[in-house]
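Troubleshooting entry. The earlier prediction with NAP gave an output that would not parse, so I re-checked the input for stray whitespace and re-submitted. Clean input:
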Amino acid sequence: MIKLKSHVSGAWHEGLGETTTLLNPATEELLAETSTDGIDFKGALEFARDVGGPALRSMTFAERGACLRSIYDVLYAHREELLDLSVSNGGNTRNDAKFDVDGANYTLLAYASYGKKLGDRKLLVDGDSERLIRNPRYAGKHILTPLRGAAVHINAYNFPAWGFMEKAAVALLAGMPVITKPATSTALLAYRMMQLLVDADVLPDGALSFIAGSTGDLLHHLGPQDVLAFTGSGDTAKRLRSLDAHVQSSMRINVEADSLNAAVLGPDVAPGSEAWQQMIRDIATDVRQKAGQKCTAIRRVLVPPERREACIESLEDQLDQFIVGNPADASVRVGPLVNGAQLEDVREGLKALETESTRIMGDAEPTGLRGTENGRGYFVTPFLFDCEDADAAHIVHTREVFGPAVTVMAYRSVEEAAAICARGDGALVSSVYSNDRRFGREMLLALAPFHGRLTLGGDKVASFAPGPGAVLPAMVHGGPGRAGGGEELGGLRGLSFYLQRTAVQGYQPLLEKFFPGAD
Ligand code: NAP
């Protein structure tokens, strides 16, 4: 069995004492163990700040972008090995594994290219010179410089590769050293990525540190120049928001949390049309992919009353085709949930959903699945619910069941659909499917305040649009309220979290000389 180590203060460190185990969730085979007891996290933080920070800040954006390109080259060269780890430790089918691993690589390439475009400069200028008084020779500019602390990244279990890189690429390009921590249960993939990067020596010392397991007392040593970017459950987010560094010293925290995303079908879309097929495909993908363990997955489907039956039939047809089982078997389309705790949580959630909706399909205790031994592994089959009264229902709008489940419900007007979506208290992404321009626009505007991202489907894009579940580096990822209130990616927008925006006022020609142009 592999014993994971943490890479901090420029070296690998093995924790002492009791270990946490990492399993194959399809077979319950033990794969690795880890502990971080005894690791000097205060020293790790200081090393990142004092060694990694200055090294990154001495580099231009183009140089930092080149580092990201080197990270991509190393990871891409080991893609097959990384995909295998994602299948064994993550319970992912090969396609689900690609979604994570290739997503990480694609994001790295995107940020490498932003770095190249920003070129030989070390700071960013935000906007044009501002005229402040009658005399134009006194003016103001806004500049953005990297914070002097470390960026601590805590990731969820479902995207160990993409979660690692969608955060690290942005922070490193901004010029902040990173201390990253994957969720322990699926850390094997991120651990191997870190080993490859250390061996390839693609980053300056201290620029990237890795914690394999608990963060120990690390978070208690954070200060006002550090930042914390977290992805995971709302409950953990609440705990992190009570950290002294945040409450007392205004240390920045970005949270990416739960979400009850919706798909809304326009009244103009007929069953069988391209837009219809697009919606059914997007929903089925979100139920299947990573066994529904995706923060962007569609959980609620809103259709006009006269389309409810057809929608349920189409979805049932699609979901019924998915083979559930051990993802090591190439025919399997839906793998297991990540661990026993998650299985229990999902089973409870499914029971709760069933108290107010009719279960059309789904088995929470399946047996005889492909490639599995009975009683082994953490499986449920895809669940489809029909909610007859969306207004009266409560659980479907408030409980994120992090598994392969979706609920169909009816709406009667744009206002009602928006109100139903809003009962999720803020979401990462929802999708609207319509060819009616007026409906599409009204729906997008009604949903926008409650969402970080919206996608508009329809006949014109049905054959090539990625589903709403795909988070693209050029677009903002995050959402208000329950979704955490955070914002990541969005091209260069993502850099702001790691940069201090400073307003500088003075003699205009001098400011222009110091900080030319606008980026
Ligand atoms: P979680 O239990 O909150 O864990 C998330 C991360 O926080 C893990 O790395 C975990 O480490 C760490 N953690 C837990 N307690 C901590 C503490 N007191 N101090 C420091 N770190 C702590 O969430 P999860 O079960 O991994 O992920 C599922 C949830 O994440 C779902 O609700 C999903 O919607 C959300 N999610 C959101 C997004 C998004 O982008 N918005 C993306 C993916 C997932 P250990 O593993 O070592 O406990």
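This one parsed fine. The mean pLDDT is 96.
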